[in-house]
Amino acid sequence: MKKLIVFDVNETLLDLKALDPKFEQVFGNASVRTSWFGLVLRNSLVATITGRYDDFGKIAGAALEMTAQLHDVTLSDEDRTAIMGGIRSLPPHADVIPGLEKLTSAGFRLFTLTNSPSHVVETQLQNAGITGYFEKSFSVDAIKKFKPDAEIYQMTAKELGVPADQIRLVAAHDWDVAGAIVAGCSAAFIARPGKVLNPLMPVPDIIGIDLTEVADKIISVDG
Questions:
Q1: CA quadruple 75, 78, 81, 84: dihedral sign
Q2: DSSP assignment, residue 201?
Q3: Which pTM was predicted?
Q4: Which of 56, 99, 157, 179 could be disulfide-bonded to 211 (CB atoms 3.0-4.6 Å)?
Q5: Using CA atoms in the order 146, 147, 152, 154, what is the torsion angle rounded to 10 degrees?
Q6: What is the pLDDT of residues 109-126, one digit of tens each?
Q7: Which is nearest to 167 in space by CA: 176, 14, 72?
C-alpha cells in the first residue's frame, strides 16, 4: 500500500509572495510580509502552548495589527481587507501542479492538513485551481491546537484509518516536518527559498528544492 501524502498548504503549495505588492503599498517594504507571517506562526505556537485557541485567520489579523505597531503604520480598513482577503486568493507555486500531476499519475492519494479553518482552505484550493487533486482537507480546527502539536498528525491518521507511519507529510516548514516525524509519520521537506531544516530536529528522508523533485523522490521511495 502506497503511503498517503498529506500536504501543508500556505507556503508549501500556495505562494505568499503574491501578497508582496500589498505589503509594499501599506508598509513601503514588501519584505515585511515575511516578518508578518513569521509572527503569525509564532503566535499560533504560543496559543497552543498556553492552551488558548483562536482560528488562524484571527491570529493572522492580530499579527497584522502587531506588525503595523512595530512599523508605526496606521492600518485602514481597506489595508486590512486587501491583505487578509488576499490570503484566500494565493496562486500555487509554479512547481505545484506538475508535482501533483506526477503523484496522482503514480497512484498516490493526496490530502491537505492546514492550520487554517476548513472553509478558508477550501476557498484557497479552489481559487488556486488545485482542489481536484485532493480527496479531503483536514484542519486543526477539529481539535483546536496548531501544528506541530503531535495530536494534529495523529488525528489525521485516525481520520484516514491508517497508522501514522502510513502517512507522509509534505511541507516547506522545518517545524511541520519535525512535528510529523515525532508523531510517527514520514515526511518530505521542500526547501523553498529562505527555508532550511533545524539541525537539532529529526531530518526527513526526502528533501528537494521544489515539489517536482520531491514528487520524483516520493515515487522512488514509496511507490
A1: negative
A2: S
A3: 0.96
A4: 99
A5: -160
A6: 999 999 999 999 999 999
A7: 176
